[in-house]
């Protein structure tokens, strides 16, 4: 078995608090796991009575006893294609196990509201929970909301925990304990225009220096077309900047738990990312672009290179959405001084509520939902999974462009399991570490900005201890 990594080996929506009139503890507050807050319980009942819940029972009611006798499993999931596929397969699970599954399904904001109220109240009304390891994973693990699954993941050799990629596993591991099983992954890749490279007589860039040189040449020889585009808004850009940071040998937090965004490696990464956009980006580029705006520039034929999540590739290859759909290519993130190190992260995972009285059945469900066969079927439906065997199976990549599948293979092998600082206050951290990105894009003093941000980020880390 692989050695379990500490948390530091490890989307974009912030964790929002449920807005109610009673003083319910916020999901951003650290609380003791089994403290049942009376007002929160009342708020939970009020919330459900308001009809915010979308529930579907695949098999009807049942007893809610302990592990030995429960016949109904309560599963809370997010609105997602992954969820739709799992729901369609539930009759198979119920027939095989005799366990009836009651699914509650929410949008991301509603899901956060539910967890805010229920988990703080110590509820046992959730057995299996779908959560975002990079957004609320550290908080949930630190507060004891997630059951330690270490023994369970290693107990079934046929299910094969070693098949899961290291990056996603690192993000669902806390203090050497497995607290979740990754179900959906995402990697960063380089999008590029084949026609523009051919016209310029250029090969696909394999290094950061080659990327800069190609972006420079294409912008100089193609009026109105940028050499490079990417996210520029300070919080949104953090995730895509992270691959540059890792490839330059940096990270957000060091092994000692201290900020590392003022290291020579980090400062070089900030300066390089900013220079690509400042010198070779679109004219009068704004500093409030997230992926829709950056993607639009690329798909309208206004940029040669674009770094973005692989999960968004269809926006560039669909003729209905992209003017350059027939000329788009994909490649791994170019190598920096530390190599090609894109993020390889789990955007969603499954965990077991530690207050559940039905943990055995909860694990049976997770084992079934994340089995090799189920992962393959879901990936064929367009949802990238975390099992290496599925990525190595031709069926698992049949729906992807061939060059994209090859680029993803590099990211899954060398990828880093986080694309933002792994802290409790994720939105605040992203604002801090994203500020030097904007400074670099606008041609400011990146080193000074990194030094200032480093102090603020270290204060945040100190406050969370």
Blueprint (SSEs and pairs):
Elements: H1 38-49, E1 54-57, E2 72-78, H2 81-97, E3 100-106, H3 108-120, E4 128-131, H4 137-142, H5 150-153, H6 166-171, E5 173-174, E6 177-178, E7 181-193, H7 194-200, H8 208-221, E8 226-229, H9 234-247, H10 264-280, H11 291-299, E9 303-309, H12 314-317, E10 328-331, E11 344-352, H13 359-369, H14 372-380, H15 388-392, H16 394-397, H17 402-414, H18 426-441, H19 446-463
Parallel strand pairs: 2-3, 2-4, 8-9
Antiparallel strand pairs: 1-3, 4-11, 5-6, 7-9, 7-10, 7-11
Pfam families: SBP_bac_1
Protein name: Sugar ABC transporter substrate-binding protein
Helix fraction bin: 40-55%
- CATH class category label of the largest domain: Alpha Beta
What are the segments in which pLDDT stays under 50 over at least 5 consecutive residues? 1-66
**Biggest beta sheet summary:** 9 strands, mixed
* Overall SS class: alpha/beta
Whole-number mean pLDDT: 88
In DSSP terms, counting alpha (H) and pi (I) runs of 4 or more, how many helices? 19
- Rg from C-alpha positions? 23 Å
CATH architecture of the largest domain: 3-Layer(aba) Sandwich
Along the chain, the helix and strand elements come as HEEHEHEHHHEEEHHEHHHEHEEHHHHHHH
Shape: globular
For the record, give the distance between the C-alpha atoms at the N and C termini, rounded to a whole number: 31 Å
* Percent of residues in beta strands: 5-15%
How many structural domains? Answer: 2
Count of individual beta strands? 11
CATH level 3 topology of the largest domain: D-Maltodextrin-Binding Protein, domain 2
The fourth-level CATH homologous superfamily of the largest domain is: Periplasmic binding protein-like II
InterPro entries: Bact_solute-bd_prot1, SBP
Pfam families: SBP_bac_1
Protein name: Sugar ABC transporter substrate-binding protein
